[in-house]
Amino acid sequence: MCMKLLLPILIFLTVLTSCSTECQNNFLNNYNRRSVSYSATGNSYDVFYPEYDGKATYLTVNVDNLESQDVYFIFSNVSMDQSDSNPTVSGHSASEIRDQISRQLIANTTYDKPTSRGSTVTPLRDTVGQTERFWIQQNNSDAVILKPCTCLKTVEVGEKQLSVWKQNSLSSITDEMAQTIADTFMRSGDDNDIYDWVTNIYGEEWGEHNSSNLIEPNNNITILLVDDEADGSTITLGYFWSKDNYTTEEQSNSNKRIMFYVNGNFYAKIKENFKEQKWKASNICPATIHSTLAHEFQHMIHFYNKIVKNENTTLSSTWLNEMCSLVTEDFVADKLGVYGPRGRKTAECTYYHNLYNNLGIKSSEDYNIGRIPYFNDYNDRLPIFGWGSSDSAYRYSIAYAFGAYLARNYGGPQLFRDIVQDKTVSDSVIFTLTGSNLETLLRKWGVACMLSSLTEVENGLKYNNGSSWMMYEIDGISYNLGSINLFNYVSSPNIYTATSSSERSIGSSYSLGTCTNRYARAAERKTGTLKKYVKLESHTALTIVVR
Predict the structure, then answer these.
(1) What is the model's pTM?
(2) CA 375 to CA 304: how far, in whole Å?
(3) Is pLDDT of 271 > 90?
């Protein structure tokens, strides 16, 4: 999917520490003048929300009754199309050391509405040893080529069949690996596999429809292990491609299956950097692929809901679709026994453990692998509501951080079921289902980030439940979400400081992106009264946190 680039409109976000009268008068031209006063309560935290009225405002902020406390300002750009200019800031520089693994969703950008025709279920049943040629895209190339493949495993559960195939040139896949990926996705019994857990939230992946250009329901799901690159700066771990849901009359390179593509080389890989000696399901590579299957399964179901059942001509925006998939990984991480997008401790990876100790970066008990470090690096640069191929690793991280916040504060799996099953593909579904507007969500999310090291916070601001799971139940199946402390990662949140006496004393060398938050420390271990002068553009809201 593509999105038009938005040209930045240069404006200023400013906090004044001191300024002459003449300076202030020039500074205040064309701005409303307001004052707000608050008193700290002495509790573990206070949050104050100066009124946002959508007007350019010069705000005098007073916070009294402080007792050796830190005061933070959170600036929220609540506009969908305006970026703030680059104020001056003193801030930390983030580590760029990171695994560069990204997932890929390949999908058509527009779709024809289904053509009326009743469909019937004609079962597709594969057999072990069966050979066919599949249309495959490999190594991020544009070419889609017919490649010979062989069926390795089949699983029958009720009326459904799962079949696991591999590309014949893939020599690294063993029988144990094929059996493991099959059992992880679908096996006999209830509440014990990805298929059960994900369909319980979102519904089935395929079924009845009224379209002559889509394949008929056949009660088969195919996992194809492809001979793709396993190393490199960018790796395609797996993907769902809606072309295969269409007839060959509609899409000439359709495989006419409801299917996933999985990087077989990566699945079979042993990463010695993670203290691995032999292949097993809990190793980093197969565990990541298992999480990816849940991720891509949401995409598959999302397509069926939005395009087929509700007859839309476009999918949800990429960021929203990806957010749903990333949070789906979160929902099943505990069940799969994997870390998922929350990440893992560097002590569990020899490479990072040694590297960070040598560099003197925090401790090996801090988290690194996962989505949060990139979010901490880029939280105020890239918007929630957007996507780009050149910075997708960061976009995934931002989408996950926001989705993880929504899941932990607005109903868990029920909220995400409602998003996927809702008839609309508009981003506004988020506001409708949470009962909040962009300003409210963005400000509360910013506060939740700044309070993520605390375990006792009010509803709507919660990331962290300590060592206890945040538990949800939907239709008889329970889901556990783990705690997130953004300050417990090797790259912790960017918190800027206001030490300059210049008019633009808070900011960065980067624009404050649309639909983003910027954190700034206005005072450290302050006692008594804090007074600041804040200049806010018409699309910038201020929130104050005292800790």
Answers:
(1) 0.88
(2) 30
(3) no
